[in-house]
Design a protein that fits this description.
By secondary structure, the protein is α/β, with parallel strands linked by helices. 47% of the residues lie in helices and 12% in strands. Strand 7, helix 7 and strand 8 form a beta-alpha-beta unit. Helix 9 crosses helix 10. The chain is globular and about 60 Å long.
């Protein structure tokens, strides 16, 4: 039996997709959102919010490639050539410029104390300085940190000071932790510095398998998928601090707590492999 020429099984999948798509669109507490500066993080935040909220967005022309890509992907995104135009048209403004440009950019903008909320993504910015330079009240100025994974709602934002309204918006990016102080936020920023070491670890794993005869594409795929599984296990118990304690079953065949042994053995193997290849072994 076909309905409108579509098999029932396929029709059911389409209905689910349409229902799910409608369900994830949030009525945003900030109808108009702006981005002063449009680099990697700004583009990721805009992408995540454009997929999950009914807000409209105004973004800086810089960088041109990212702003144009956003505008071509989402009908709700408009590219602006002037930063003040972004501020004038928006309720919530994300500051996403380089640290060296913060004073100059904020010094050239005029905010409405009764309308605007400012969120800085500049890691070196201080909330008291942002309050002074923007002329906004302390309840309207925030600092935020996140990774590019917010584009797919797989990230977690750090934000200070707390704001239930802003958190409701940022939860659409995957989650939001409200930090009571900048000190807490700075402390929690440390894990966001692990992207480099994480990819280095994946590379070491992939290279280890490749050097032992595993096809490189298979090694790359298996390393990434293995760590995805580990991450999902960690996420499942992330509200329980004891979930991260080493325990049996976390060692991949050797029990828990094998990290030092693994890294030492891996480095030793690769060093010896290099020596043998050069005729030194």
């Amino acid at each position: 039996m076909f309905i409108w020429g579509i098999p029932p099984s396929l029709l059911f999948v389409l209905i689910l997709k349409l229902t799910f798509t409608d369900a994830i669109i949030m009525s945003s507490p900030y109808p108009k959102i702006g981005f002063v500066g449009c680099g990697t993080i700004a583009a990721a935040i805009c992408t995540g919010l454009a997929k999950t909220t009914d807000s409209t967005f105004h973004v800086s022309v810089r960088s041109k490639a990212k702003s144009e890509a956003l505008a071509s992907t989402f009908s709700t995104v408009t590219v602006e050539t002037m930063n003040q135009a972004i501020v004038d048209k928006c309720d919530l403004v994300f500051l996403c410029v380089l640290p060296a440009h913060v004073d100059e950019v904020l010094g050239g903008l005029t905010f409405d104390p009764e309308r605007h909320t400012l969120v800085s993504l500049v890691s070196t910015s201080k909330v008291p300085d942002l309050i002074e330079k923007s002329g906004l009240g302390p309840e309207r100025v925030h600092k935020m940190i996140c990774l590019p994974s917010v584009a797919t709602s797989d990230g977690t934002c750090l934000m200070t000071p707390p704001s239930s309204t802003l958190k409701a918006l940022l939860d659409n990016l995957g989650g939001c932790v409200e930090c009571e102080s900048e000190k807490i936020l700075t402390t929690m920023m440390i894990p966001t510095c692990m992207m480099g070491p994480y990819y280095r670890l994946l590379k070491e794993m992939k290279d280890f398998m490749r050097d032992n005869g595993v096809p490189e594409a298979d090694a790359s795929y298996f390393a990434a998928r293995t760590f995805l599984g580990i991450a999902k296990d960690a996420e499942a118990g992330c509200k329980d601090p004891k979930h991260f304690e080493p325990k049996r079953g976390h060692g991949g065949g050797g029990g828990g707590g094998g990290g030092p042994f693994f890294f030492g053995g891996l480095r030793s193997y690769r060093s010896r492999s290099s020596a043998l290849a050069e005729g030194e072994g």
